[in-house]
Amino acid sequence: MWDSVPDVKREESGPDPVDTRLGVRLAELRAERGWSLGELAERSGVSKSTLSRAERAEISPTASLLNRLCGVYGRTMSQLLSEVEAEAEPAPLVRSAEQPVWEDRASGFVRRSVSPPHPGLRGELVEGRLAAGADLAYDRPPVPGLEQHIWVLEGALDVTAQDVEHHLDTGDCLRLRVWGPTRFRCAGPDAVRYVLAVVLP
What we know:
- It is built from five helices and ten strands; from the N terminus they run αααααββββββββββ.
- The model is unreliable at 1-12 (pLDDT under 50).
- It has helices at 17-32, 37-44, 48-55, 63-73, 77-84, and strands at 101-104, 109-113, 123-130, 135-138, 146-154, 157-161, 164-168, 173-178, 182-186, 192-199.
- The two termini are 29 Å apart.
- The chain is α+β, with helices and mostly antiparallel strands and 201 residues long.
């Protein structure tokens, strides 16, 4: 079973409210399909214990874990996170202060959902930030053939896709379709900030 990303232990103050809502939504998605934890473990390659702890918000899920589950549930990460923050009718405008921010504390990755959330969205904008030295790997895209445009706003970023490494400096933009593993690595001595435009096939 895939379980290579270490669990992030909780502080004594208890689970993060976003992680709690996320755990509830993950449990709902599994229940909607009538899957046991064992069935989901087989489909995702994630251990039953990690899945159970994520659903109970005993761990803060990593970006890699969420990416795996998004692939099983046929969603992008923005779609999943928008369901956690869902309103009755999605607003067409989201002010900067209201854009959901999610942090993968294990990898030093911070993700801001810039686009107004909508369950039927095909295109979306995400702001990503990686701390100096951070290295983020995904073993598969949430949706095969996903189109991505990566535009570096500050710093330097190394992106590896289909065994080809691309070095991006400030202002550079890379376009690709994602079919297999990808890796994002902060290449400079300082943090990197970039825009990720995602378009569903």
